[in-house]
Design a protein that fits this description.
Layout (H helix, E strand, L loop, with lengths): L1 H22 L3 E8 L7 E7 L2 H5 L5 E6 L7 E8 L2 E10 L17 E4 L12 H4 E4 L4 E6 L4
Parallel strand pairs: 1-8
Antiparallel strand pairs: 1-4, 2-3, 2-5, 5-6, 5-7
Length: about 150
Amino acid sequence: MIQTKISSTVCLTVSTVLLCLCSSYGQNTNIKISGIRSEKGQIILNVFKNSKDYEQEKVSKKLIFEKKTFDNGIMSINCDLDPGSYGITIIDDENKNGELDKNFIGMPKEGFGFSNFFMEKMKKPVFDDFKIMIENQNNKITIKVKYM
């Protein structure tokens, strides 16, 4: 009887721990990037957790994708993100130097974009303009690349 009670308690404890671990895993997030002008280079995806990190350019996750799945200016990529709010930016790093190249007056020479937000003005958006929520599996985000 005591052995059965201990076994039940151990099983319940292990099940609870496994359930907690599974719920904290990253959620599958599909990002569809459109408006890419060239097959050259790579896409740099930067994930920001909050407004302060974005303003200080403190990236919480940086991923680099080759343009292998590029088709008619569209590329679809997948990544895992833990549940929460984020802002995602991309750079079309055409020369693969790992940064957004700018001209002599500071205007971007390469493409860039923001999660679920298309920059129509010349002003850099604030974090809340492109903030997204990751809540469950199979999240879908769109990013349209802008070139100056």
